[in-house]
Design a protein that fits this description.
It is a single chain. The chain is mainly α. The protein has helices spanning 3-30, 38-65, 70-77, 81-101, 105-123, 138-141.
Length: 145
């Protein structure tokens, strides 16, 4: 499996985490006038933060796999290059090796991409969101873009 394909798979994972963030955030909005305790509301906000951090981590991992320069990644994160490289380089390489060895990964990713496309179409706002029929599945049709 090549790096562009792995970058596409990492972007798919990023999209899955973004869906979790959106769905969980919707739950927080829905509970706004409920009788949740202060602790419940704080715990929900903390969970949302952790879910959002997964989106960030997988975004960086996808960009590493796509070949983005470390200085660009570090600048975007507001951190120094050595720290960003130390945090992401080994884990990303390890993940890429595991993915390359997984013969079932391609089929699993295809099904997950289709499910995310369906979710996007159900939730997309005609005025605010890009008009894409299959924004996630398109990753695998054009993985280098």
């Amino acid at each position: 499996m090549d790096r562009p394909q792995q970058a596409a798979q990492a972007r798919l994972i990023t999209a899955g985490h973004a869906r979790e963030v959106a769905d969980f955030a919707r739950g927080i909005v829905g509970a706004t006038s409920g009788d949740s305790t202060a602790a419940d509301r704080i715990l929900a906000a903390r969970r949302l933060r952790l879910l959002s951090l997964q989106v960030l981590q997988w975004t960086v991992r996808a960009e590493v796999l796509a070949g983005a320069p470390w200085d660009v990644l570090a600048s975007a994160l507001g951190r120094d290059e050595a720290t960003v490289r130390a945090e992401f380089e080994a884990g990303t390489a390890s993940w890429a090796v595991r993915q390359a060895a997984d013969g079932d990964a391609a089929a699993e990713f295809e099904a997950a991409a289709q499910a995310l496309d369906d979710w996007y179409r159900r939730h997309a706002d005609d005025l605010l969101d890009p008009a894409h029929e299959s924004p996630v599945s398109d990753l695998f049709a054009h993985p280098t873009e």
